[in-house]
Amino acid sequence: MARASLAASLPIAAAAAAAAAAARFRFRPSFRGMASASAAVGAPARVGVVQMTSVGDVDANYATCSRLTKEAAASGVKFLCFPEVFSFIGSKDGESVKLAEPLDGPIMQRYCSLAKESGMWLSLGGFQEKGPDDSHQYNTHVLIDDSGKVRNSYRKIHLFDVDVPGNMVYKESRFTTAGNTIVAVDSPFGRLGLTVCYDLRFPELYQILRFKHQAQVLLVPSAFTKVTGEAHWEILLRARAIETQCYVIAAAQAGKHNEKRESYGDSIIIDPWGTVIARLPDRLSTGFAVADLDLSKVEAVRTRMPISEHRKFDSDWKSSTQQ
Questions:
Q1: Which of 197, 243, 246, 262 is catalytic?
Q2: What is the per-residue pLDDT across 218-269, written as a single tens digit (0 to 9) for each?
Q3: Which of 107, 100, 106 is closest to 65 using CA atoms?
């Protein structure tokens, strides 16, 4: 387990254009009687980011998640973030579809009980939720509060249909149906923007979460491949933090899950200035790293670098093309 304190970093210029893409997706807010997190800045909140190597055994993966949750609770963590496909990674095509369940099914109910028993919020990235038909699932990021209730969920929008150079061909859409709803959730740890893995390569989603829906913390549970992780993982995460002036919490799968699949690892937490403030010392180990999120830092960075006031791309711009 590792813990890091906030530090300064070199400034890097930011702000990508926000999106006409917003019109293609619905936005589902979640308030549930809670005051807006952006309205008040309280004491720093201790959060944890998990790293694990999920396998094709639901019970074994739950045992790992349960152990890490209890260890994190003992360390004072109030919000623990798990990686994509935390509950199951199969070795055969279609295995996860057969195991897929609704969010009120027995697998997720175990995790709801775990959150309640631990008195902790859980971010569960990439759950195999039962899909619209028997041949498809949703890749769903589930947020559970400390009473054990599912506070909200986000179905992954961008599916990983990629031929990774020197690796293998992935076709996530073969068994997974894409979501179409952007989700931000108020919580005691700030306003959370929910995403999953491959979403990371599409900055307009994060721009929408920040500038249209006031996210302060972006969650990126992932299972990056070894090849793409080595090339792009930290760079993309730091870019999203800098562009949006948000904390980024990126829980990662690590190591070999089976003969066919290997993940990069390197679970990290990044502050709104783009500084890595927590990561596991070993990129492939199972464990968690801890940081204290201070929302006053979000406000300070945004005040000193007021990109929300300087953005122009929501306006109608003329364009010129030449043949």
A1: 197
A2: 999 999 999 999 999 999 999 999 999 999 999 999 999 998 889 999 999 9
A3: 107
Please, which pLDDT band fits residue 107 given cuts at 50, 70 and 90? very high
The dihedral built from the CA positions of residue 239, 241, 244 and 250, taken in this order, carries a sign that is positive
Helix and strand totals (H; E) in the chain: 7, 18
In angstroms, what is the C-alpha Rg of the chain? Answer: 19
- Domain of residue 240, residue span: 17-32+42-305
In the set 78, 81, 129, 156, the catalytic residue is 156
Verify whether residue 84 is a known catalytic residue. Answer: yes
CB contact at 8 A, 49 and 249: yes
Residue 72, CA distances (Å) to 8, 80, 181, 197, 303 in order: 26, 7, 31, 23, 33
CATH number at residue 62: 3.60.110.10
Terminal Cα distance for the chain, rounded: 57
The answer to whether residue 156 is catalytic is: yes
Query: Does 197 qualify as catalytic in the annotation?
Result: yes
Ramachandran bin of 171, using left for φ above 0, alpha for ψ from -120 to 50, beta for the remaining angles: beta
Q: Report d(CA 277, CA 284) in Å as an integer.
A: 18
Which of the following is catalytic: 65, 78, 81, 84? 84
Question: For residue 98, which phi and psi values (nearest 5 degrees)?
Answer: -65, -30
User: What's the total number of domains in the chain?
Assistant: 1
- Quote the tokens at residue 87: 């509950």
Inside any domain, residue 4: no
Taking 70 as the threshold, does the pLDDT of residue 12 lie above it? Answer: no
